[in-house]
Amino acid sequence: MDINVEVQRQLNILKRGVEELISEKELEKKLKKSLETNTPLIVKLGIDPTGSDLHIGHAVPLRKLKQFQDLGHRVKFLIGTFTARIGDPTGKSETRPMLSSEDITKNIQTYLDQLKLILDMEKTEVVYNGDWLEKLKLEDVLKLLSQFTVAQMIQRDDFSKRLAAGKPVSLVEFMYPILQGYDSVAIDADVELGATEQTFNLLRGRDLQRNAGTEPQVCMMMPILEGLDGVEKMSKSLNNYIGITEAPNDMFGKVMSISDDLMWNYYEVATDVPMEEVGRLKAGVADGSIHPMDCKKRLGAEIVTIYHNEEEGRKAYDWFENVFSKRNMDVDLPEVKIDEDEVGAIDLLVKKLNFFKGTSDARRLITQGGFKVNDVAVKDVKAMIKIEAGMIVRAGKKKIVKITK
Amino acid sequence: MDINVEVQRQLNILKRGVEELISEKELEKKLKKSLETNTPLIVKLGIDPTGSDLHIGHAVPLRKLKQFQDLGHRVKFLIGTFTARIGDPTGKSETRPMLSSEDITKNIQTYLDQLKLILDMEKTEVVYNGDWLEKLKLEDVLKLLSQFTVAQMIQRDDFSKRLAAGKPVSLVEFMYPILQGYDSVAIDADVELGATEQTFNLLRGRDLQRNAGTEPQVCMMMPILEGLDGVEKMSKSLNNYIGITEAPNDMFGKVMSISDDLMWNYYEVATDVPMEEVGRLKAGVADGSIHPMDCKKRLGAEIVTIYHNEEEGRKAYDWFENVFSKRNMDVDLPEVKIDEDEVGAIDLLVKKLNFFKGTSDARRLITQGGFKVNDVAVKDVKAMIKIEAGMIVRAGKKKIVKITK
């Protein structure tokens, strides 16, 4: 094996979809040394056990981790059992409450259960920062604190904004980036992955490693995935997400709802389709030789394949074709049970079917003729809909359910 | 005993010379409760074992502590073995280096040796904050940090000035006031003494005690004593101090060199002369019935009495009378050995006798006729003085030495 060729091959795979790399030169050097000494790189991704259901936005750095794993590197998946009690202030406009240890334990289990869908857990070392942070004493803390100045900390975007707005920033929040940095010293990380908004924290690891006399870690910042709306970042609370444990048809349907522009983003950071091929698809759409809808269906199938398997990907593709493209009702439709005998049109769309978050979107759809009951458009926003078992309700092109009673 | 009368008596003694009291009402309440329950108040004074020789400026809060002791309260004299490693940033324009533990041990011994001159050591509990601070773990530190915001900290005068000037403020310095406050929780202080510049730190103890559900300590801020020059605060490095271990005649002579105005300050915070009497002296000087020099001699004798004894006070008084007022040479004079046979007038005053820090003051004295060798004025600043054993050199009215070879 020509080491330089292999370094370039790995670098090309690893650079895909990365928003910022500090620095490419250092990563190249580390990969070379790793190959020469036959010592895998230690790659760190830390999460706080605060959340629950993972979506494909969370999966972006996790899938990058998987690439390192596939290339033979050592993945240390760090669960911030200790730091979760502080709460990462990143991007928050207010001080976060500390988590109880019960919540933490429950969240970790949910997290690990879902991780299996992305990482090779046999080759993943799960580490908990409570194991070393719990042992730190005041003297150690002071040594860490002495390596940073107040000015450095308040430079951080979310701190400076909150300070300028007169909102409280607890001193405990200054500890979060420092402890995240110390984690890198503790596990001897060569590379740390994170979202772009984590850059400040990731760089603190470099500071502390450098001060400790070790080689600073490479910081690899992944983009934050836009949600289905193409505007906000993907998040559960905004209901613009694709959960990695969602059913194939739901995943597929959600992919179909994104804009053509957003599709290329998802191709790059949420699938393994080679970038050359993505380039060809994009060119085809641009010159009119490929219909964007076809690219989107392919994207849907790719994403279902990642979190389920190829067969499910194909089946979801067929299902969508039948229901939406061929308007064939002879397929499984999502079912929703409604007890009432009669429901107002807007209430049906917003409260019963959760198709919309607010009434104004529902109102617009109805007046534009997108609301159909058994394929008949209902354009009166005040219409009372008689609920019957087996009736099919559509909202626009991509939302469809069968009502049961 | 009428408790209310006793409370007022104690309050009057304790309020003497205090610059700020937070708050008098609370101190009154605490004194009352102390008398009612027959439980002495716990009075804290903390020092960092950074310095060496104590001067009568350092003695101001120590003498206040002695008053509490004399009134039957419990004195906890806190030595900041732990915090000394951080260095209190108060009033400093730069981050202080940490002290080595050898320096700390040496400084503590020097400190305790001198304390005996002021406090009743039998009734003084000496405590070391390393005993509890060393045990704090990261989790405890986070709990402390969570009680303060960044905005609160950077309000502190010396922090905000340094930040505004773009000078570094280490994060570790934020810990100093917090740990000083935690010390008050740890030793359950009812009252903490400090200099006015310590107000910010002392108040943090109130915050932490309140949050811990205990009654906040009373903060008693003592003024910072001006040095002999009446301009700068008394300090060894400015050579404007009276050390508490200095010889009686030296102490006395230094007191005689202060201005008439400054004398009343010294009377109030550096002696036990009842304030009514100080008032009478002041009035006498004002109406011309008492010569200020007589008040100053009395002050000199009072200060020598405090750090030596009454007899030494009287002897220093007599010595000064003989040498300066009666110009009687038949007394012990301070002796200085000079090896050279001939020394320039300015060099003699500045380098050999240390009467002045700079040449310009020496030059002025000479031209004004204040420099006398064997009672003959030498007004030529370029004069070479022939050094002979037994010769008497005077500089102004209060500096006199006998030369030996």
UniProtKB/TrEMBL annotation, chains A, B:
It catalyses: tRNA(Tyr) + L-tyrosine + ATP = L-tyrosyl-tRNA(Tyr) + AMP + diphosphate + H(+). Homodimer. It comes from Psychrilyobacter piezotolerans. GO terms for molecular function: tyrosine-tRNA ligase activity. Keywords: Aminoacyl-tRNA synthetase, ATP-binding, Coiled coil, Cytoplasm, Ligase, Nucleotide-binding, Protein biosynthesis, RNA-binding. HAMAP family: Tyr_tRNA_synth_type2 (MF_02007). PROSITE patterns: S4 (PS50889). InterPro entries: aa-tRNA-synth_Ic (IPR002305), Rossmann-like_a/b/a_fold (IPR014729), S4_RNA-bd_sf (IPR036986), Tyr-tRNA-ligase (IPR002307), Tyr-tRNA-ligase_bac-type (IPR024088), Tyr-tRNA-ligase_bac_2 (IPR024108). Its EC number is 6.1.1.1. Residues 4-38 form a coiled coil. It holds the Pfam family tRNA-synt_1b. This is Tyrosine--tRNA ligase. The lineage of its organism: Bacteria, Fusobacteriati, Fusobacteriota, Fusobacteriia, Fusobacteriales. ATP binds at residue 236. Belongs to the class-I aminoacyl-tRNA synthetase family. TyrS type 2 subfamily. Its main location: cytoplasm. A motif ('KMSKS' region) lies at residues 233-237. The gene is tyrS. It is an enzyme of class 6 (ligase).
